[in-house]
Give the backbone structure.
Amino acid sequence: MEMPSMSLLSITPMYVAVLGVLFIPFTLRVGLYRVKNSIDIGDGKDNALIKLNRGQGNFIETVPLAVILLIVMEILGASSTWLHTLGALLVVGRCLHYVGITGAGPANCRPVGMFSTLGVYAVSSFWILFHTLG
């Protein structure tokens, strides 16, 4: 089947793909840690696994809504500047949060990453409201 030449979404899919690729090592780190430490179910009261689980879990808890907001913005005609700025902020924010919460980097990365993600939520939500109610 041939794809249409013009797509409704041209920018957001790139960020969706990058976030999807990032989720792979986040998930693999949990699985490999479980295998290495023989922890099949739960967290085994293992602090390192708890951190890995929360890093992966927080990613999957926060990324879907942010992606939906970016998709809606693009459908409503947001400029590439808005979409690239917010998409990049989301990717960087999720990476910073992950390294902060899992201990793979400085702990202060965690709040910076969460603030970045919440910034994407706020800016995109207000952009959508302004452009649909305005």
